[in-house]
Specification:
- There is one protein chain.
- The protein is an alpha/beta fold.
- The chain is built from 7 helices and 5 strands, in the order αβααββααβααβ.
- Helix 1 packs across helix 3 and helix 4 runs parallel beside helix 7.
């Protein structure tokens, strides 16, 4: 939302975060969203599990710059992990991940990057995006007729998330 130039976005983000910290007198947790970046997603990530087609090197040169720069400065407390899918993170454009908020291998690969790894090991928090979103529901059941919240929650925790965003999380037969 701050632009397409990674350096400027990083600068704007850090200043915005500092303003929120100062204005709240450090009483507000800062958790930037859409990690590791949705700059080139191919569809609305709330309606369908959209895909970002970039290698890890390409993400590091663009979408991840503001996150890594801010992590190195310890500017934020947590990250909201997107429900996007990533194609090509391991250099193979044929390989498509599950939504990263539910994919342990992909999420841990990104969190192993310099800056992010140190931030997380120092107590950083990972939180999912909305696990009851249409994107997640359609990922598990393209007909959108069933929803197994327990499986979704388990997979989110196993992926490495510390907190789960359970918006619209009711199963079809729940009261």
């Amino acid at each position: 939302s701050f632009g397409s130039n990674a350096t400027w976005v990083s600068n704007f983000s850090q200043n915005y975060i500092q303003g929120v910290r100062q204005g709240s007198q450090s009483r507000m947790l800062i958790m930037p969203g859409n990690f590791p970046g949705l700059g080139s997603i191919d569809r609305n990530p709330q309606m369908e599990a959209g895909t970002v087609r970039k290698t890890l090197d390409e993400l590091q040169a663009s979408d991840l710059v503001p996150f890594i720069d801010s992590a190195k400065q310890r500017d934020f407390d947590g990250l909201m992990v997107s429900n996007a899918r990533y194609q090509g993170l391991q250099g193979n454009l044929a390989e498509l991940s599950a939504p990263i908020s539910l994919d342990a291998q992909t999420l841990q690969q990104v969190m192993g990057l310099d800056g992010l790894k140190q931030w997380y090991e120092a107590g950083g928090i990972l939180m999912t995006d909305k696990l009851g979103s249409q994107a997640i529901r359609r990922y598990y059941d393209p007909t959108n007729t069933a929803f197994d919240g327990r499986t979704v929650a388990r997979n989110a925790f196993l992926a490495g998330n510390d907190l789960l965003y359970l918006s619209s999380f009711l199963e079809p037969n729940d009261p």
